[in-house]
UniProtKB/TrEMBL annotation:
Sorted UniProt keywords: Membrane, Transmembrane, Transmembrane helix
Species this chain originates from: Streptomyces maoxianensis
Key word Transmembrane present: yes
Protein name: DUF4383 domain-containing protein
Transmembrane regions: 34-53
Organism taxonomic ancestry: Bacteria, Bacillati, Actinomycetota, Actinomycetes, Kitasatosporales
Length: 58
């Protein structure tokens, strides 16, 4: 799920950069790209993958 969120953030950063939309400093394309990289790193680390850890059945 976080991988999809990262892809959406990268696409938004691309649109901001390609369309040369003037935004404030918080939503600049570089900042949105860094948020996407953070979310992608969390996805690769296994956080938010939807899998519950190892469980025992008896």
């Amino acid at each position: 799920m976080l991988g999809i969120a990262a892809a959406v953030l990268f696409f938004i950063a691309f649109l901001i950069n390609a369309a040369e939309i003037s935004t404030n400093h918080v939503f600049a394309s570089g900042n949105v790209m860094l948020l996407g990289l953070t979310v992608l790193a969390l996805h690769v680390a296994g956080i938010g993958s939807g899998w519950a850890g190892r469980t025992r059945r008896r």
